[in-house]
Amino acid sequence: MDAPDAPKSPESEAKKAPDLGGVWQVLERRIVADRSPFAVIWDEDLLLPDGSTITNFIRVDIVPFAIVFAQLEDGRVPFVRQYRQAIGRVSLELPAGHIEKGEEPLGCAKRELLEEAGAVSDDWQFLGRYVLEANRGCGNAHLFLARHARLVAAPNPGDVGDMALDFLTLDEVRARLFDGSFEIAPSAMTASLALHLLG
């Protein structure tokens, strides 16, 4: 009787893994819906490194935005409470907004903090740029931490719908981060990074 095959080592199995370094080539792009300047939806025909193809792969281009975790001099953090159509209810989130054409992300963050929270800061830290959806795109989020922020004006966001401000302590932010109060991913991510830095 033949001896059973020896078990294969993880190293030998890893050698058979496909090469994931290849780039998917776009053969053709077709606009499905153009809602500029807010969003453009595309169908893409793609050529994969192994020679196979994918047709009608959906790509969504959304305007990049900046979002701010601003700690006031008294330690509180302003959050915006407003209705969001995608989830069908009021959300609690950090000041944020689309980056306008020709505007730098930091400039957008400063503008949105003033417009939505009536606050300014001279102490800014960039927390990173993150893609919202790895396959479809859906825009880039530029995350910022603003320390020693000061309230200097009444909020004037100019957005559609009503908006209200809540001011939370760091302990309240931590509690709400883990009880599901922050449903909007960029706000949860920005708060997590800021809390890590603030201790």
Helix-strand layout with pairing:
Layout: H1 10-15, E1 25-35, E2 39-47, E3 53-62, E4 65-72, E5 77-84, E6 89-93, E7 96-98, H2 105-117, E8 119-120, E9 123-133, E10 137-151, E11 163-168, H3 170-179, H4 185-198
Parallel strand pairs: 4-10
Antiparallel strand pairs: 1-2, 2-3, 4-7, 5-6, 5-11, 8-10, 9-10
Task: Summarize this entry quickly.
With 199 residues, this protein is an alpha+beta fold. Helices cover 22% and strands 44% of the residues.
Keyword list:
199 residues, alpha+beta, Nucleoside Triphosphate Pyrophosphohydrolase, 2 domains, 5-stranded mixed β-sheet, 3-stranded antiparallel β-sheet, 4 helices
Classification by helices and strands: alpha+beta
The main sheet comes to:
5 strands, mixed
Please report the total strand number as a whole number.
11
CATH topology of the largest domain: Nucleoside Triphosphate Pyrophosphohydrolase
Tell me the distance between the termini.
66 Å
How many helices?
Answer: 4
| CATH structural architecture of the largest domain | Alpha-Beta Complex
Q: What is the averaged pLDDT score?
A: 90
**Low-pLDDT runs:** none
H/E element order: HEEEEEEEHEEEEHH
Could you characterize the architecture of this molecule?
- The protein has 199 residues and is α+β, with helices and mostly antiparallel strands.
- The protein folds into two domains: 10-62, no CATH class; 65-198, Nucleoside Triphosphate Pyrophosphohydrolase (Alpha-Beta Complex).
- It contains four helices and eleven strands; from the N terminus they run αβββββββαββββαα.
- The strands form three sheets. Strands 4, 7, 8, 9 and 10 form a five-stranded mixed beta sheet that branches.
- β9 and β10 form a beta hairpin.
- The longest helix has 14 residues, at 185-198.
- The mean pLDDT is 90.
